[in-house]
Amino acid sequence: MTTEPFTTESQRHRENHSFVFLYASVTLWLMVVVAYPVQAQQIHFADITAKAGIRFTHNNGAFGKKWLPETMGPGCAFIDYDNDGYPDILLINGEDWPGHPHGGATTLKLYHNNGNGTFTDVTQKSGLAIPMYGTGVAIGDYDNDGYDDIFITALGQSHLFHNNGNGTFTDVTKDAGMWGANEFSTSAAWVDYDRDGKLDLVVANYVQWTEQTDIYCTLDGTHKSYCTPESYKGTSVRLWRNLGGGKFEDVTQKAGLGDPTSKSLGITILDANGDGWPDILIANDTQPNKLYINKKNGTFEERGVNAGIAFSEDGVARAGMGVDAADYDRSGHPSVIITNFANQMVSLYHNEGNGLFVDVAPQSEVGRATLLTLGFGCFFFDYDNDGWEDIFVADGHIENAIDKVQKRVSYAEPPHLFRNLGGGKFEEVTAKMGKAFEAPKVARGAAYADIDNDGFLDILLSTNAGPAYLFHNEDGSNRSLRLKLVGTKSNRDGIGAVVRVTSGADKQTKMLRSGSSYLSQSELVLTFGLGTHTVADAIEIEWPSGQVDRLANVKSQQTLTVEEGKGVVGVRPYKPSLKLAK
């Protein structure tokens, strides 16, 4: 298979539009005052993990045999499970291998947000203290009862937990019809792919691995190392259709997603072609990435190669890990970031708006800065509220002795934070964010949320066989507006809704999505940075049902709850920043 067809198409596209290049450049220059980010602020991310009461260490079960699942690390999530307006924290955990106990029983951890910068461990009383070799998580209200539920991916049996609305959860995996799918599952995402108002679930699966089939691999010819996925057979993603009444049906084959060659780690949902229907992008490890276009009849068509998103520029299937999508350049089209292995750099696929994606990372600071690091969790978010989507990448290698064979590559690695400068340009600002933030880690999952209702997004980070980190966003001065969606004809969370916010000459577009990043889930609230604007002139919400709601002259510095068909049903002004690090 070659990349010539879509490379040629990309070149032809550029040639056909070369006559507008000069005009576009002049236009952008003239708009620089109103359309480019405001001056950078002195923001930093303070490590408040200990002060917040987060005490967690991931258990990957490692005991010296170097079994493949030990490298994957845990996911993490924000979930407002009790609807108090403050996002709570969910940390996924593994367990000891059978016959090889070494640290005592471990389970995932649920921490309740107390609203003052601290959290309380409520795992036991929540009913979530169930042992499993957990990997990832997706959050969504699958039964539309107003309380978000939890799906935990695992090595073996994944689990669906129903939120009972009283601070407890019930494992309903068997009742839901999901029992028996014993796989090496990784990321997951809720998506109403058929737009019937009920959330369906897509689950990524990695490779066919068991303790008995573990393969001996070595880096130095002497000692066992972790194998690459190329050593194992792939397996298909799985699509669960929500039948209502708490029941799900496996429609993977029927929907056209069955592909046993995939080795999937990341999932993001996006409307790749702008037709109003959710498409599915799968990041594959050493196999081509898959872009499943929704055909609006319950089936999908895979177009990764035609879209230019399957391979690198030179036609190589890279080691895709995490993935996210966003309209980072205000073109109105969602572009894509995919993290890859060391020596491969991050992919930044720009959506050309004609069905084609072009990887612009090699010409960007995003590519140059990530060549040697191994990325996992990643997401677009506007950390400084200037109205432009920035990029965060969590890094960490899988082999603790990698520096012995690759001197320029390390096991623990600093993260990457890229500030969006507008015009398709990014600047790495990691070193400006504080020593704790910049410190090397063996990071895996990553998610964001505003933990203290100050209007700025904070970061949750998980590490492999190590602690979790909570970083508080401090010293920002730009304004923002946050939207919590409540669907009626659409799913209750409003997942899949597209929101457009206009402030002066600035226009932003965001989709509310489940999943993305790597094994992780960010909060189900949309944050729009407004820079120095005090008002959003116009807000348009296009719900999955097709309903369109509009708001005008909305003040900044508040979180609005917007109900489909009704408009604003709740207003919550921001609090002053708690300065949690002080």
Short summary of the structure?
This protein is globular. It contains nine helices and 38 strands. It has 582 residues and is mostly beta strands.
Describe the overall structure.
- This protein has 582 residues and is mostly beta strands.
- It contains nine helices and 38 strands.
- Strands 6, 7, 8, 9, 10, 11, 14 and 15 form an eight-stranded antiparallel β-sheet that branches. A four-stranded antiparallel β-sheet has the order 1-30-29-28. The chain has a four-stranded antiparallel β-sheet with strand order 2-3-4-5.
- A hairpin with a 4-residue loop joins strand 29 (458-463) and strand 30.
- The N and C termini lie far apart (56 Å).
Fold topology:
Layout: H1 4-16, H2 21-30, H3 32-35, E1 44-47, H4 49-52, E2 76-79, E3 88-91, E4 109-113, E5 119-121, H5 123-126, E6 134-140, E7 149-157, E8 159-163, E9 169-171, E10 182-191, E11 200-205, E12 217-218, E13 224-225, E14 238-244, E15 247-250, H6 252-255, E16 264-270, E17 279-284, E18 290-294, E19 300-302, H7 304-307, E20 323-326, E21 335-338, E22 347-351, E23 357-359, H8 365-369, E24 375-381, E25 390-395, E26 416-422, E27 425-428, H9 435-438, E28 443-449, E29 458-463, E30 468-474, E31 479-486, E32 498-503, E33 506-511, E34 526-531, E35 535-542, E36 548-555, E37 558-563, E38 567-573
Parallel strand pairs: 31-37
Antiparallel strand pairs: 1-30, 2-3, 3-4, 4-5, 6-7, 7-8, 7-10, 8-9, 10-11, 11-14, 12-13, 14-15, 16-17, 17-18, 18-19, 20-21, 21-22, 22-23, 24-25, 25-26, 26-27, 28-29, 29-30, 31-34, 32-33, 32-35, 35-36, 37-38
